[in-house]
Amino acid sequence: MGYSRHIPASSLHVSKPTWWLESRFHFSFANYSDGPTNFGALRVLNDDLVHSDGGFGTHAHRNAEIFSYILDGALSHKDSMGNCEALPRGCVQYLSAGTGITHSEMNDSEGTCRFLQIWLTPDCTGHAPQYGSAVHSKADRHNRLQHLLGGTGRLPDWSSVAKRSSITLHQDANIFVSENDALVEHAMELGPGRQAYLVNTEGSLGVNGTTLAARDAMALVADAKKGMALRLRAGLNGAHFMLIEMAAPA
């Protein structure tokens, strides 16, 4: 049987370990272990604020699909494969850690950088490390679903989806973002055997009659036979959200 669960921003753990970082954890992470450990393949979702001249210095990862979606400022990436770039709002950086890689994420610009940092468990261990990024404008996601990242499964047949992403995750998951004007609506069907984690990053968003404020989330699990109809409606100040659609655990 399917279900939906509202996750208010007030219920998220707020971490302030140093002067340059403020994070909101949707799942257990680092020294915080009182939250859920995962939602299917979704293992980490952190809403990070990194102040100017701060950031995550060089550190190692292994066997994780990691991506960052920038909401404000610019995020600078550097890794052991020689990639080095800074990307602004609406862009995505993707790192498949595979057998092992080191990287850093810094805010080298003025002002605060806000981004969503997300980790997915890969479909198997031992993939070759790879890096990808994509630059997008507001027009790419304005009042429609932008396919930010794809996976090993099929793309849902949703009418408001823009073209398929060229970046492929090592997992059966699809990541969409959308930045909407007031009262814009989206209707879609979450298929049988599928689930989704939705984060409303800015504005307010109605999801099947439940209102999500900024930074609220919703966990959605479709009925195994019937699926789940989704009706999304931006609030009076619009809505900017991310939807992570994936296979439900067997």
Automatic annotation (TrEMBL):
<feature type="binding site">
    <location>
        <position position="103"/>
    </location>
    <ligand>
        <name>Fe cation</name>
    </ligand>
</feature>
<dbReference type="InterPro" id="IPR014710">
    <property type="entry name" value="RmlC-like_jellyroll"/>
</dbReference>
<dbReference type="Pfam" id="PF17954">
    <property type="entry name" value="Pirin_C_2"/>
</dbReference>
<feature type="binding site">
    <location>
        <position position="105"/>
    </location>
    <ligand>
        <name>Fe cation</name>
    </ligand>
</feature>
<dbReference type="GO" id="GO:0046872">
    <property type="term" value="F:metal ion binding"/>
</dbReference>
<dbReference type="InterPro" id="IPR003829">
    <property type="entry name" value="Pirin_N_dom"/>
</dbReference>
<keyword id="KW-0479">Metal-binding</keyword>
<dbReference type="Pfam" id="PF02678">
    <property type="entry name" value="Pirin"/>
</dbReference>
<feature type="domain" description="Quercetin 2,3-dioxygenase C-terminal cupin">
    <location>
        <begin position="159"/>
        <end position="246"/>
    </location>
</feature>
<comment type="similarity">
    <text>Belongs to the pirin family.</text>
</comment>
<dbReference type="InterPro" id="IPR011051">
    <property type="entry name" value="RmlC_Cupin_sf"/>
</dbReference>
<keyword id="KW-0408">Iron</keyword>
<dbReference type="InterPro" id="IPR041602">
    <property type="entry name" value="Quercetinase_C"/>
</dbReference>
<protein>
    <recommendedName>
        <fullName>Pirin</fullName>
    </recommendedName>
</protein>
<feature type="domain" description="Pirin N-terminal">
    <location>
        <begin position="18"/>
        <end position="120"/>
    </location>
</feature>
<dbReference type="InterPro" id="IPR012093">
    <property type="entry name" value="Pirin"/>
</dbReference>
<feature type="binding site">
    <location>
        <position position="59"/>
    </location>
    <ligand>
        <name>Fe cation</name>
    </ligand>
</feature>
<feature type="binding site">
    <location>
        <position position="61"/>
    </location>
    <ligand>
        <name>Fe cation</name>
    </ligand>
</feature>
